Amino acid sequence: MDALAYERQFVDHIAPVWRALPATVRGSLIVDPGLESYCRGLGLDVQPVPRLNVDRGRPIAPPVSPKGPALVASYGDTKEARRLGYGPLAYIEHGIGQSYGKTGPKANGSYSGGPDRADTELFLVPGPDPAARWRAAYPRARVVEIGSPHVEELPARIPGPGPVVAVSFHWPAPYSVSPYAGTAVADYAAAIPWLTEHWSVIGHAHPKGDWQSRVRRVFDRAGVPFVDDFADVCRLSDVYVCDNSSTIYEYAATGRPVVLLNASSWSRKGPELGLRFWEASHVGVHVWDRYDLVATVRRALNDARPIREAREDALSKVYTYRSGASDRAADAIVSWLRERQRVAA
């Protein structure tokens, strides 16, 4: 079986499972050429393949021959796998499975329970929320709750002076996905310098497209160093301040406090959309106004018992398991492949 990962965050979630799979099962790990050096740094042998073959600006459909099953971690790579002739597919969530409350044919295909996944036979998910959505949408598929292989590989804080506050912003997803799917950078950019008056601060952003380079300029103006890789954020910081990302829960799962930035365009505790909005939103302390940011970060750094207990309760709603995810995913994939072989025979 091959695997495809065309963005860095997809590599991060596939890599631990790829290592856990038996060598007899692993085929080629196919990545975007721009990720080749990143993958080599993770100790992965990869095969770089461009997303599109282009002639005079027009994509050329390659000759498609059946290539068998593949593992992917995004809807975009699901479509890319089809283009290359792969199928059926196994899919691993590249985050917590946030869906913004939408499932079925009208939902966005990139989120849990979305349409256009009929050729996906195995869904590997971190917890019960996306599991329920995928089961409802595709009752004939296998859905296995595994926890998060990526979380298990996140590093601890390295020894060093602190506290260090990490601030990160989600990419501006289309309003059509959900009013809650975007970014709060416009609400809190002016408050970043206020944090530097009290603590060391590092910046980060979702790695989607050119979003990191755009947000880097915000931190540059505040004199704050930017950290590209989320694993390095975990190594260098003591609290994580973010608007809307699975990294909020991933960071919290390392045992450290988080602060959730709420945009002014979002309704205060509006409709129940699940997980970050709002079933598991008590994973950290919330900010609704940038003038409260410094005081809220200070409160989070104190990490009092009620905050810790709320964090653990929220994490229990997101992750079915907090260990063994890579092996659990590998076992599910091997079982699925064996069943396919048995049926084919």
Please provide a written account of the structure:
There is one protein chain. The chain has helices spanning 8-20, 36-41, 75-83, 128-137, 149-153, 185-188, 192-196, 211-221, 230-236, 247-252, 293-302, 305-318, 325-344; strands at 2-5, 29-31, 47-48, 54-55, 58-59, 68-72, 86-92, 120-125, 142-145, 164-169, 200-205, 239-242, 258-261, 285-287. The protein is an alpha/beta fold and 345 residues long. The protein has 2 domains: 2-148 and 321-344, 3-Layer(aba) Sandwich (Rossmann fold), CATH 3.40.50; 157-318, Rossmann fold (3-Layer(aba) Sandwich). It is globular and about 65 Å long.
Structure annotation, total helices: 13
The radius of gyration computed from the alpha-carbon positions, rounded to a whole number of angstroms, is: 20 Å
**What class would the helix/strand composition place it in?**
alpha/beta
What percentage of the residues does DSSP assign to strands (E)? Answer: 15-25%
| CATH fold-level assignment of the largest domain | Rossmann fold
Number of DSSP E strands: 14
Question: Which descriptors would you attach to this protein?
Answer:
345 residues; alpha/beta; Rossmann fold; 2 domains; seven-stranded parallel sheet; five-stranded parallel sheet; 13 helices; 14 strands
What's the gist of this structure?
By secondary structure, the protein is of the alpha/beta class. The protein has helices at residues 8-20, 36-41, 75-83, 128-137, 149-153, 185-188, 192-196, 211-221, 230-236, 247-252, 293-302, 305-318, 325-344, and strands at residues 2-5, 29-31, 47-48, 54-55, 58-59, 68-72, 86-92, 120-125, 142-145, 164-169, 200-205, 239-242, 258-261, 285-287.
